[in-house]
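batch_manifest entry 22 of 60
target: OmpA family protein
source organism: Hymenobacter jeollabukensis
requested by: lab member K.T.
priority: normal
notes from requester: please return tokens only, no post-processing; we will run our own comparison against the previous entry in this batch. if the run fails, retry once and flag.
--- input ---
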Amino acid sequence: MKLLFILSGLLLSLLPLTTQAQFGILTGAVDRAVNRAAEREINKAVERKLTEKTGEYYAQLMDNGRVVSHSIAFEEGSATLLADSQPFVKGMADMLRRNPDVRLRIEAHTLLAGEAANQRLSQRRADAVRAALIGLGIDGTRLSAKGLGSTQPLYSEPDDEYAPLNQRLEFVKL
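--- output ---
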């Protein structure tokens, strides 16, 4: 790589100015093509991993009747899905496409206890995930959404280090 850089610099110094500009344009085009190829390879790897994981989701759903996700995250205090949540949502959509007989209830749980606002927030979050799945081509009649707020905590001690796990989404087979 270092040798290539030195050689390209030497070549540039020997070329007329217009040829140097053309070389720069060509170099930029090659860099963009390399970046696109690398991005395609990364996307293929992500798709392979999603396909692998959706098989696990389906097995868990069939065995336990539910899949619990801490992978779906929202902007703080809102129902706006974060970009990091998209792979899991896409994986669920892929699983639902491959299994058209499966119907789900999306249950959203919040971390904080006792407030009516948290109940409404959890409903908006469940609705947002349902809308995202519909946006990925899943028939809305196969999906329902239920906000449960903090009514079903996994950990009831607020100071417990595991209390943040109360904030989750569950996909329940109907």
